[in-house]
What does this fold into?
Amino acid sequence: MSTLAHTMMTAARPSETGLAGPGELDRYPYAESPGVDRVAPPSWEGGDAELGRVARRAAGSRGRGLHGQLVQQLGQMIVSGDLGADRPLVPEEIGQRFEVSRTVVRESLRVLEAKGLVSARPNVGTRVRPVSDWNLLDPDIIEWRAFGPQRDDQRRELNELRWTIEPLAARLAAGHGRDDVQQRLADMVEIMGHALTQGDGLTFSRADAEFHSLLIQLAGNRMLEHLSGIVSAALQVSGGPVTGCDRPTEAAVAQHARIAEALASGDSQAAESAMRQLLTVHPEAERVVPAPREH
It folds into this structure.
């Protein structure tokens, strides 16, 4: 196993800010003036009461940073339907409820706007957009859907998408002669086997995700490579049942090894077939959604 591969498996997952550039939201500063004390928070009914409850929970968890927490909380609430389509989002009220500054609110709404979840318009303000406008390929939205009421649809859609992407990527990647990437694929298989013997599910999961990302890179198709983040997100949030690996097993390691061997030997048909076998859904597998990953 190479030192690089081992280090890669123990490194923290990089965060993705997704910050958009300056846009409409910059034109809408709060109505309050700097230095003026705020009045009592408005009384929010219905979904507003839910927002207040979530805000209190978020305020007690600072590990993600204020900006990341607010994006996460608002994103989850929008995707789950707690904040429905065309719902107005008043920055000042959000700031008061979540006890964050106007800058944090403004930057968080920019991120959500870049993901297609909200829009800012003159004389209208910031509103929640319908599902048809969301960037459903965004890794964060994939995660939020996977842990919300739409979890079953998200798992099915991810599996169908992977069936389209990965067998093709395996066929294209076969025999490309990238010795460095082939070695890293072999490293990932070795790490998965070691993690299995150690009962280390987290390391197994990281190696699995890296294996699939490397395979797509090896395909040499930039459009497919652009979708590698989707596959990674699918592996992170979907759990094993949709991949045929409901938990780390020797069979899963062996199937990954067969894919790596087919790629190294240039057997495109065998590589594609092995990938399809890996993606086979086992109906008897217990469909349990794991806890959300830490960022």
About this structure: Strands lie at 88-89, 118-121, 125-128. Residues 4-63, 239-246, 282-295 have pLDDT under 50 and may be disordered.
